[in-house]
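Lab manual, section 2.4: Encoding a predicted structure.

Procedure: take the sequence of the chain (377 residues), apply the prediction step described in section 2.3, and record the output as structure tokens. A sample record is shown.
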Amino acid sequence: MRSKLVGAATLSVFAVAAHAQSSVTLYGLIDTGIVYTNNQGGHNAWQEQSSMLSNEVWGLKGSEDLGGNLHAIFRLENGFNIQNGRQTYSGTMFGRQAYVGLQSDQYGTLTLGRQYDAVVDNLGAIALANNGDGNNLAAHPFDNDNIDDSFYINNSVKYASPTYNGLQAEAQYGFSNAAGGFSNNRAYSFGVTYGNGPINLAAAYLQLNSGGLTAGGALTDNDFVSFPAARQRVMGVGGNYTFGPAIVGLLWTHTLFDNTQPGANSTIAQSFNTLHFDNYEVNVHYSLTPAISLAGAYTFTQGAFNTGTGSVDPKWHQVTMMADYSFSKRTDVYLEGVYQHAYGAAGTAFEGAYINGLSQASTGNQVAATVGIRTRF
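Recorded output:
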């Protein structure tokens, strides 16, 4: 009897140990509030909206210890709208992220599936539009550089190195999955970050070779691609510096589109032979107390496009200011205001101001203010 008890106790210890070596976590975020806009198509608007700051998600992530400092990992993440219960990406259960892979403490992480690109991973942490839980209203015009993760890369293989003396690199390739069309609707990106004390630096590059957003390619019509193009390239550098309760960031991105054609989710329903954007952002975060924080950003965007009948150089000034109060680690309330001034493109589709997440204004000026609540689980 005693030996049976010892054996049972031993088995229970092994069972607990095995359970402790693997984990599955359910997580999510809900963000909703009231938004006022002075000009959407020539009319002011009071609206109850979701995800004005942070994307609403729920997901599952897990890790299993395989021994030898090697782990199997996965993430399945769904985007939704709490106002109507609909999925953000129609027809998909896990439209935000869906991947599986291996993580090694010594050799890095290899994952396969639907994933963020290197611009989001490396430069997103510096921009106000995607710092921490994100800030969708603060995105650069039309999210032209995908800093605000408007789209994801399907069929992608991503490798992220371990951190060596503060330096980390990543590379990604998204397959077209097209027989006889290897380069049709593929994507690739790479980036690098460096952190040393209060200094963080980053650089990234992304290229999309669309040739038509096919259902099985790296991008699809289900993704929010502002300007579907035969080729899109994004490059950028940035950094931030922490001193005391303040963090100051600087960011530059350059986006080039070749031969754009309006698609299902196009922001501007117009074709362009070439379309370029340069975004210059300065931002600051300041913690007044452990519960109260302030943030702000100024972005200047200089554009250029050619339609075959002439060239135009539109420009945008955008200012964002935000105050946040945390009730707890999970729940906070916020107040934010955004002002955008667009000019230099009279008589074209870019004539009206266009704050991200709202409808285009009938003039070159648009103001938005929102008060909302976020909770995480």
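Check your result against the sample. The two ends are 46 Å apart (CA to CA).
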